[in-house]
Amino acid sequence: MLDDFMTRATLAGVGTALAAAPLGCFVVWRRMAYFGDATAHAAILGVALSLAFSMPIFVGAMIVALVMAAAVTLLTGRGYAMDTLLGVMAHSALAFGLVAVSFLSGVRIDLMAYLFGDILSVSHVDLAVIWGGALLVVALVAWRWSALLTATLNPDLARAAGIDPRREQLVLTLALAVVVAVAIKVVGVLLITAMLIIPAATARPFARTPEAMAAFAVVLAMVAAWIGLQTSYQFDTPTGPTIVCVVAVMFAVSSIASTLRRAG
């Protein structure tokens, strides 16, 4: 069954949705969208390093994403506003990554595939990496769910309950790095943040509890991945951007429905 490229692509899209959607809820709640963007942009530098040192792309992307996250954490509060710091580091990392790729000799690289994804070329190994990473993220978020939620809603309450908000931030950082490394093959570094944020934002108006929002976001992301893949196949459009277009349409419909419900 896995010999069919569409089956592999569908499983890759579902696996990426499973990893990105629950984590995306915390990104939305904490207003960390730009942080996710910076981490994703840094991944292209990880791709260059992976190719230069003959490492798996997943390993290089995750290492650079972790370094980026650690650097942002260390530099925060040292004279620069968070959005300024993230803007500088995100675009600098992307630029250095693109320049580094240009210096690689004897290595064939499809840069567009890493920027916008190439889900239709997912191999059996890629599929194992995507699902391994997705299950790791889900297990990590499930294990720390209560502590993460408390630290997100009220850091002071978290400290009173013996929860270290900085430790929970580190857990989110680790999970975010894994998601970036997992999703790079499916939607590319420029669109990863969209898969993190849009399903969670779409689910938010209709969820009564944080758990319901996370579950609804997962379902929406999986459905969007499947619809986007089928649409891309039918109309010969870029698959990664098509998937993001589908979740964007879902968000628009969700916003309209939420507005009409409040008006009524």
TrEMBL record:
GO terms for biological process: response to zinc ion; transmembrane transport; zinc ion transport. InterPro entries: ABC_BtuC-like (IPR037294), ABC_TroCD (IPR001626). Pfam families: ABC-3. The chain crosses the membrane at residues 6-29, 41-72, 84-104, 125-145, 174-200, 212-229, 241-260. GO terms for cellular component: ATP-binding cassette (ABC) transporter complex. It comes from the Bacteria. It is a multi-pass membrane protein. Its main location: membrane. Keywords: Cell membrane, Ion transport, Membrane, Transmembrane, Transmembrane helix, Transport, Zinc, Zinc transport. It is found in: Cell membrane. Belongs to the ABC-3 integral membrane protein family. Involved in the high-affinity zinc uptake transport system. This is High-affinity zinc uptake system membrane protein ZnuB. It comes from Sediminimonas qiaohouensis.
